[in-house]
Amino acid sequence: MKFASYWHDTSIPFTGGIVEPVSGDFEVAVIGAGFTGLNAARTLAQSGVKVALLEAEHVGYGASGRNGGHLNSGHFASFGAARQHLGDDRARRLWRAYDDSIDMIERIIEEEKIACDFRRGGKLKLASKPSHVGKLQAMSEEIRREVDPSAEWLTREDLRKEVISDAFHGGILYPKSAMMHMGRYANGMAEAARRHGAAIWERNPVTAREPLPNGWRLTTPTGSLTARQVILATDAYTPSPFNYFRRRLVPIASFIIATRPLTPQEAAATIPGHRNFTNSLNISNYFRLTPDNRMLFGGRARFSAVSNQKTDVSSGQLLRRQMVGMFPQLADVEIDYCWGGLVGCTQDRYPRAGNAEGVIYSMGYSGHGAQLSTFMGSALADMAMGRKDANPLEGFAWPAVPMHTGNPWFLPVVGAYYRMKDLVG
């Protein structure tokens, strides 16, 4: 078993980064080479803006290369809950942004000729308990009425064509949702950004920032550059020079396992629907088949802000037990990959974007960033170029998390609370 991201291990690494020390004067510097930063840099470079992209590790290293491979329409909450929290206009604008981002990803893949196994497979949100059915049915009806007429409710009998398990009692089908190979997309986006003129430095974390009369100086271990504007696209991996954001983000580890490739018969006997799947628990699981027919199965196996081989091993063992509990037919199937990564969560789980501390930012995707981040990268680029009404998250207040200084000491307590809710709910 490899303790590495399947997406990283099965894609050709980007090799177009600059090997010389960081230097130069730029109109915009983008920090973070995940989907947000990559599309911001690509969009700016396409528009003729002199742009630099700084990445602490390698392209797609963080959440963009460590996620479940889902591109799901809509957001995590019911539309009614979002409307109550955000107001009708903002809730609708956010919902549209998720849908528009999948459309944008599809266009970019076609325009830039990125081979990343993109497919509109749809998503099923599955009721894990009989008591969850009524709530999900009501959510399905509300979504159809208010924002997405294509959504539909599938009964337990309907699910037999989609997922071969006794663990589920119905589900909401979101047909617009899609999937792709995340590592190939990230590396393809980096190559596109470089081709359009972006200067990309990997393995150059920003260790300091200094305000200048006409912008910023950003320092890395190999050198420094200056830029009139800075875009921060680091989410859960935000470095210490940007503590304003760290106090508003809670990094939570998420873990994933991937089996050996399943035979066509094994795949058909497990999830013949070949969609994205999530369940309805508070500490939920998500799963899908990879392009080479592996079962990729993930979840918040532990509430921690740490992902390393020790935590990945124990979390992988728990995820395997959960997977086999849902799919006993996979009990003898080997696990080939096990990895973890950090998710940047806000207190209310809604993302944030705007201007603060002298930088333009988008982050706090709270586990639903694979689709939205590409769209927000384009929005940040538009903001940097002075275009109005580019930000679908405009006006979302973002207070600091009480008693949080960047080290989320309270996560075990939060995890225990949600596990109890799942037990009694």
TrEMBL record:
GO terms for molecular function: oxidoreductase activity. GO terms for cellular component: cytoplasm. The keyword Transcription regulation does not apply. Residues 28-383 form the FAD dependent oxidoreductase domain. The keyword Transmembrane does not apply. Keywords: Oxidoreductase. This is FAD-dependent oxidoreductase. It comes from Rhizobium chutanense.
